[in-house]
Amino acid sequence: MTETSTREWPAQWLRGALPLCVLRIVADEGPLHGYVIAQSLEHAGLGAIGGGTLYPLLGRFERDGLVTTDWVAGENGPAKKVYTVTEQGSRYVATEAARWAEFSEITTRAISGAQTKEREHDHVGER
Amino acid sequence: MTTSVKDELKAHAPHVDGSWADEFVFELRLRGASGAAIGAALLEVESHVAEQGTSVTATFGDATQYAASLELPDTQEWTMPELVRQFVKTILEIVAVFLLIGGFAALWIGGDARVPVVELIIIIAAAIAVFAILSATSGAALRGLVRHPVLGALLTGAIFVVVIVAATAIPGPVLRMAPGIAIGGGLVSLAVVAVIVAVEHRRGKKLGDPIIFPQPQ
């Protein structure tokens, strides 16, 4: 387990980013069942995501037509519900990932104070 | 929840704490989820907990909150024709009770069967009002009553007392008829109710909706 996998992030941050992260994992690595998706998220450094957070999200994706599901027999265990991204889901994740990258860049600049420094620099230049 | 249902839940979800599973299924039932959807949701919890090896509460939290967060479709929600049929059924059942009580009382005591019209109307109105509130709130009112049993019992008792007091205090006409007619009318009302139930059953409205666990392909 990597060092990042033990991190805990504020719930309000995860609320924004988690849907896209989950859908990206299903799109890239699917078909997957919930427990493996949770593990992938943890390995990606997002921390331990509980079933109480993950499955309502997957259910919403299913209702919105972003994923399809099947039940497969588990090896020496209970049956598993596996999720596969649909074409609509693939298009959605591609579009939203691009938008998220833009949003992330803007917020990073805003949080780091880069914009403020640029404005101060511009003011000095004007004088 | 019956012992056989509990046993079935335990057989399909051995890694899920029994009381958590009971609460989860109960909440989903109150929310009108289908038996198939409940089975699938519980099996997914079982699959996750079995693989992770932690307690169901640690991973999924409170059973009631988790059930609510799934937002499973309410399959018990009535369409307008179904709602009308439920109203008609309720009215006929109350009329049948009044007619049968009046008819058999008259046979026992002698004389005509007596059906107090105002009492009948008030009780029908109260039943329809309670029914309408439960339907309009999409089960939220019912869930509130079940979750707060003491408050629910007090409220139900208060409504019952108000209805009975109002029904007996307000004077009104009394329908008089031969006992045989009253009993016959009561039986006909019950027969119509039975026909409505049979029609609903034939049209696919399930009288019971057992929990079905998905079978892997």
Features:
heterodimer, A: about 130 residues, alpha+beta, three-stranded antiparallel β-sheet, 5 helices, about 65% helix, elongated, disordered N terminus, B: about 220 residues, mainly alpha, two-stranded antiparallel sheet, 10 helices, 2 strands, about 70% helix, about 5% strand
How would you characterize this protein structure?
The complex is a heterodimer of chains A (127) and B (217). By secondary structure, chain A is α+β, with helices and mostly antiparallel strands. Chain A has five helices and three strands, in the order H-E-H-H-E-E-H-H. A three-stranded antiparallel beta sheet of chain A has the order 1-3-2. The radius of gyration of chain A is 19 Å and the shape is elongated. Chain A starts with 10 loop residues before the first helix and ends with a helix. Chain B has a two-stranded antiparallel sheet. Chain B is elongated and about 75 Å long. The model of chain B has no long low-confidence stretch (mean pLDDT 85).
Which helices and strands, and how do they pair?
The complex is a heterodimer of chains A (127) and B (217).
Chain A: H1 11-29, E1 32-33, H2 34-46, H3 51-63, E2 67-74, E3 77-85, H4 87-112, H5 114-126
Antiparallel strand pairs in A: 1-3, 2-3
Chain B: H1 3-12, H2 18-30, H3 35-52, H4 56-60, H5 63-69, H6 80-109, E1 113-116, H7 117-136, H8 140-147, H9 149-169, E2 174-177, H10 179-202
Antiparallel strand pairs in B: 1-2
Helix pairs in contact in B: 2-5, 6-7, 6-10, 7-9, 8-9
